[in-house]
Specification:
By secondary structure, the chain is an alpha/beta fold. It has a single domain, classed as Vaccinia Virus protein VP39 (Rossmann fold), CATH 3.40.50.150. 20% of the residues lie in helices and 25% in strands. The chain has four helices and nine strands. It has a nine-stranded mixed β-sheet with strand order 1-4-3-2-5-6-9-8-7. α2 links the parallel β5 and β6. The longest helix is centred in the last third of the chain and has 14 residues.
């Protein structure tokens, strides 16, 4: 592990921070602590995610960001438990991951875990009409929002515009999101899913 700015030795509960997990070469939040296993210029702490997380004090983080990172992780349960531990009582977890119908998802052989509309309903309180099985004695998180994201990469601007219309339509309400997930993902592939979760105040 390489803590390039000696950040970990200066963390404590009194100084709330934000972290960006798996930030890669283009960290999206300038003031967040960037963590990645690869040493890009914007990465503040280089190392395995679990090795780094165990060094972060409990309750010291206000918000955790992660963009197209969780799909590379096999031990999702373990990581979500660690995120829960480091978040403050009012802490937030913002996640963006590829949707399972994304046609490019399976091209990347480093992808380990797929995600859909209901994935975090297995880990958090949610307002979906369809109830998924509960494997937890109690949820660690409350799901504040979930959004299906449709887009095409440049220069396919016309196609991108059509997909944004689908995004608007399928995110009008929960019914439309669930209708899409059940009936249309392989006819109209979704690019990614965006979730916002809040840490609940129960104990691990």
């Amino acid at each position: 592990m390489n803590d390039k700015k000696n950040i970990l030795n200066n963390l404590d509960k009194s100084s709330k921070i934000s972290i960006e997990l798996g930030c890669g070469p283009n960290k999206k939040h300038f003031h967040a602590i960037g963590i990645d296993i690869l040493d890009y210029d914007c990465v503040d702490i280089v190392g395995d995610i679990f090795d780094v997380m165990e060094k972060i004090p409990s309750g010291s983080v206000d918000i955790v960001y992660t963009y197209h990172f969780l799909e590379h992780i096999e031990e999702i349960d373990k990581l979500l438990n660690e995120i829960y531990r480091v978040l403050s009582d009012s802490g937030k977890l913002n996640v963006i991951v590829p949707h399972f119908s994304n046609p490019f998802y399976y091209s990347d052989l480093t992808h380990k875990t797929s995600f859909g509309l209901y994935s975090f309903a297995y880990y958090s309180e949610s307002s979906f009409k369809r109830k998924v099985p509960s494997y937890k004695k109690e949820f660690l998180y409350k799901q504040d929002s979930v959004r299906l994201v449709f887009k095409s990469y440049p220069p396919r601007y016309l196609r991108h515009g059509f997909k944004k219309l689908f995004e608007y339509l399928f995110n009008i309400n929960i019914f439309m999101q669930e209708f899409y997930e059940e009936n249309l993902p392989y006819l109209i592939p979704c690019y990614e899913v965006s979730y916002t979760l809040s840490r609940k105040k129960n104990k691990l």
